[in-house]
Amino acid sequence: MTTATPTGGNPASTATPIPVSVDELTAEYLTRLLRTAGHDVIVETVSARPVGSGQMASSYRLTLGYRSDDTPLPDTLVAKLATGPIDQRLFVVGAYRNEIRFYREIADTVDAPTPTAYASEISDEGTEFVLLLEDMTPAEQGDQILGAGPEVIKAVAVGAAGLHAPRWCDDTLASEHGLGLPTQEDADAMQEFLAPMADAFRERFDLGEREAAALDYLVANARDWLIAPRPHFSIIHSDLRVDNVLFAPDGEVTIVDWQTISAGSPLRDISFLLSTSLDIEDRRLHERDIVAAYHAELLRRGVSDYSFQQCWDDYVDGLLHTMLIVVFGAGAAKPTERGDTMFMTMLSRGAVAIDDLIPGALS
């Protein structure tokens, strides 16, 4: 098992294994991690139960018993960690590093609705990590297969403006490791993997004519689309959909799962959200109003020289992102019955959106 010294506080006296299963989230380990991050606590008891439906990592709600009754930390936290076989974890090392980087370096530079991160560590190889987050109970995770109603999705889109607006056209993104805009080399590398992954998707799923045409459209256009000049960019979530949002009873939303952050057109997030998380008729009826609400929030947060027509055009352009994330996500995630249903649902909804909004794309 890989070992590492956590960051976020004084280094531990000796490196200890980073858990890759919930059984290894012991009171001793959690005490070390939290104290290294600057929290003066001693954990004496811990119990865990799974939460969420992550495709590349596992999450657990931890109920903690502390030695002192006046601890500054809550009694429950959510632990996210890398699980599964090492070959699967090696494939998504970049995703693990992204999420740790987001909470350590980026969350404070934006105004996105996110949980508080109390502690984290990641191995030098990136194949093991643990992230301790605020428990957002009674908020509940959305269901990607069922989708959500237009008012709910509007709230998520408006919340996403708090991610995009603070770093809107921020040239310093280029200097942050892994967050620069895609280059020709990036596009070539992506294309090398894309065609075989699309073929694997075809073999794995029973595609209809429109879904198959959407994959053809993706493979034919992804390279040029990825590096096309775009004057408007920011940091983006890249996997913004209802499975990655927590919904509170009072209507507040919290965005989670920051493993796919990148720099790019902010409307990719909105395109992906609407095309995969609304049912087809709701999207057709409400997408323009939702994009308008998102655009209005950008302006309220200080974005200027960006018309609604530009925003809408970027929204339509971002629909290819849906196909790209679905294909790569299905290839990276451990196959499950729910996961297969989810990816197929997302592909089908996204294909219809492309057919509706990009005339002739799938013909």
UniProtKB/TrEMBL annotation:
UniProt-listed Gene3D superfamilies: 3.90.1200.10
InterPro entries in alphabetical order: CHK_kinase-like, EcKL, Kinase-like_dom_sf, Oxido-Kinase-like_Enzymes
Positions of the CHK kinase-like domain: 131-304
Pfam families for this protein: EcKL
SMART domains given in the database record: CHK (SM00587)
Name the UniProt record assigns to this protein: CHK kinase-like domain-containing protein
Native organism: Gordonia rhizosphera NBRC 16068
